[in-house]
Amino acid sequence: MPDDLIHDKDAGIDRLLEIMRRLRDPETGCPWDIEQTFDTIAPYTIEEAYEVADAIERRAWHELEGELGDLLLQTVYHTAMGEEEGRFSFQSVVTAISDKMVARHPHVFGDEARDKSAEQQSADWETIKAAERAGGAQKGTLDGVAVGLPALLRALKLQKRAARVGFDWPSTDEVIDKIREEAAELIEARETLSQAEIEEEFGDLLFVMANLGRHLGLDPEAALRAANAKFTRRFEGVEARLAAMGKTPAESDLAEMDALWDAVKREGRLP
Questions:
Q1: Distances from the Cα of 80 to the Cα of 6, 36, 46, 49, 258, angstroms
Q2: Ramachandran area for residue 218 (φ above 0: left; ψ -120 to 50: alpha; else beta)
Q3: Which end of the chain, N or C, is surrounded by fewer C-beta atoms within 10 Å?
Q4: 22 neighbors 28 (Cβ within 8 angstroms)
Q5: Measured CA angle at 218 (ends 213, 223), to 5 deg
Q6: Contact, 17 vs 90, CB < 8 A?
Q7: What is the SS3 assignment for 263?
Q8: Rounded-to-integer distance, Cα 234 and Cα 240, Å
Q9: Can you give the pLDDT at residue 137?
Q10: Cα 109–114–104 angle (5° rounding)?
Q11: Hey, what's the torsion of the CAs at 90, 42, 144, 114, to 10 degrees?
């Protein structure tokens, strides 16, 4: 066994690939690692990607290095299983993404001029991607938008794809009108329809809200994460004030907590 490589701190990616190979070895590896499949590892991959995003959002640079390592391990894990099944390898994955980056940046690696705006380069990127889809198995406008994406992110991607072929409202005014319409339908559904129908109307409203974010140049997923973080900060502030009074939220009531919430909000707006 090449233990020298395992313990060589300067061996880089080769060391990590060997560690994974050893973990997955059916004779001498880790029983838990040996049992894993693409399906069982996929949830960890999603979780690690979110932890990277969380560290960046919190500007927790001291944590980001470790989180990026955890995310890299997910790629190594999937490619190890791919190699075992004869599907692909780490090297073939690296080659594929390298080829893609070269092909999608002709203004850097080819003969095209670099004197374009960021917006024009983004448009060119989408044109190249569309040509790639046309040359492959993906024929429909919405083909290739992963079903497993977080729902808000997938809504945004679906809407962007549809907008490329002209299926889009011309301005935010029409989107806001649609929000009013969907909100009214949800209110009506709450009174007269089944739970499944209420859920459908609620989903429609969320979908249009994502579309409004796109029209405003916002990322709905990022906006909701920020709202979650703000709620967490404010509620923790309420808990801290209650604790100073010798109370817990369960020992308080809505009126008291609402007043404390307003106080936390005011304090957060002070310069």
A1: 16, 11, 18, 19, 53
A2: beta
A3: C
A4: yes
A5: 90
A6: yes
A7: helix
A8: 10
A9: 60
A10: 45
A11: -50
| Higher local confidence (pLDDT), 110 or 30 | 30
Asked whether the beta carbons of 45 and 67 are under 8 A apart, the reply is no
**SS3 state of residue 249:** helix
Nearest to 75 by CA among 88, 60, 61, 56: 88
Instruction: Give me the helices (H) in the chain, please.
Output: 3-6, 13-23, 31-35, 38-57, 61-84, 90-103, 106-109, 118-135, 151-164, 172-192, 195-215, 220-244, 254-269
Extract the tokens encoding 96: 């594929």
Q: Scan for tokens 């940046």, then name that residue.
A: 105
In order of their start, the domains of the chain are 3-103 (1.10.287.1080), 222-269 (no CATH)
Q: What is the pLDDT of residues 192-202, one digit of tens each?
A: 889 999 999 99
Token pair, residue 64, equals 């980001």
Q: Identify the burial level of 141 via C-beta atoms within 10 angstroms of its C-beta, where 0-12 means exposed, 13-18 middle and 19 or more buried.
A: middle
Question: Global pTM?
Answer: 0.64
Stretch among 66-80, 153-167, 169-183 having the lowest mean pLDDT: 153-167
Supply 123's token pair: 């448009």
Closest Cα to residue 110, out of 124, 96, 97?
124
* CA distances to 34, 76, 197 from 89, in Å: 17, 9, 46
